[in-house]
């Protein structure tokens, strides 16, 4: 039987049932996304509306403390910290992270390290200000306990009957993960690859490794090339030696402008951070030229290919360290966070960078590694399907009269630079961002759309979100913030869509329906 057609002539979507507010995406207790189906829900989440927040039991793991971690912390506070019944306990990914968080909160009184049963964390008295500082710190650099690690402890304590049933890799997980990563990063050995608990921790560890290497040489300046992901920006702003050591260079295509900066200040530049492509405008700089400029002046280049996947782009030859979220595309089920810092073995100072990274990362939890090892075996098939669908979605959006601008890997300004790095001409990744032509139409479109709506990307599941509202609500909600976005040519109503593996006609049908 043929499916009914909608007014645009596409098959009526049947694989996108409505997802209620707070529904995990995917349907796993370890899901990294959750449904935010309306703009009211988006604003309520950002403004901490109690009616919205009570329905969000889970969320992206660095932004929402996982319910397993909350349950575990509550158990230890209630049973082993009787004098601290009203205190907040943050369970961290390692004892090193707990120590770092304690130092970050100093000199707050009554902050205490927590260690018991192989768990580590920090407790502090009730204080909204201290709570916010701790939460943002752990978010920025990736310091929370893994949901699977928390789950294992809950089972050990008898607070959960069993682990969530899921398939995992049964052999040597590290060897299996490395086997896949060596294919994506040819020329590397196991000594060059550092698995982390999330992509942001890989970025932070690489930033610290380069900073420690370069500071004794009088190099403390960091260049941010283009608008980057919010926590990458936060790391550069918060952890450089002084405010003057953070430099935001807006235009990723302005190579002549970069040459002037390097000619003037190159002896002080420690490193450059470049997303290839950028998030959310999906702009690809001339990476070989940028790398040559960094080498000429002794700066280190950190390259993050997460938006399109390190499986699609050959960036290692141009980088000193490749940093990537393996939550995206590699963990395509959307049920774990993981990251990677990969040292280019041909880079000057490679040995020193390896040594410092080894002491600075937050390692990937064993069960997360076993799940990742299994999911990596699906990556090529997932990417093949995404690459078949993405150009069709782009073509549809570019031709639709309700759509004003569309950005993707092969947009005209980026196409040549991107294809110079792409492993094949089809290897674009699934990321598309776009704006609507009619002012004020965002809520109408978003609320009508039947695609899954939530944070993250690079999953088998198609996902869309009003990116600037989720990532930079402080900017979209103030006149000064809107001016800052405008200066970087960012529309506050920009939509970020990442194509999944569903039938492309059904993705198009859902878009056509909402745009009508």
Structure keywords:
516 residues; alpha/beta; Aspartate Aminotransferase, domain 1; Alpha-Beta Plaits; Aspartate Aminotransferase, domain 2; 3 domains; 7-stranded mixed beta sheet; 4-stranded antiparallel beta sheet; globular; disordered N terminus
What would CATH call the architecture of the largest domain?
3-Layer(aba) Sandwich
> Could you say how many structural domains there are in total?
3
What does the average pLDDT come to?
Answer: 95
Classified in CATH, the superfamily of the largest domain is Type I PLP-dependent aspartate aminotransferase-like (Major domain)
Shape, principal axes of CA atoms: globular
Low-pLDDT sequence parts? 1-13
| Distance between the ends | 26 Å
Share of helix among residues?
Answer: 40-55%
Percentage of residues in DSSP E strands = 5-15%
Q: Strand tally, please?
A: 16
Number of helices: 20
| Widest beta sheet: strand line-up | 6-12-11-10-9-7-8
* Global Rg: 22 Å
User: For the record, what CATH class of the largest domain applies?
Assistant: Alpha Beta
Major sheet details: 7 strands, mixed
Which fold name fills CATH's third level, the topology of the largest domain?
Aspartate Aminotransferase, domain 2
Could you say which structural class the secondary elements and strand pairing correspond to? alpha/beta
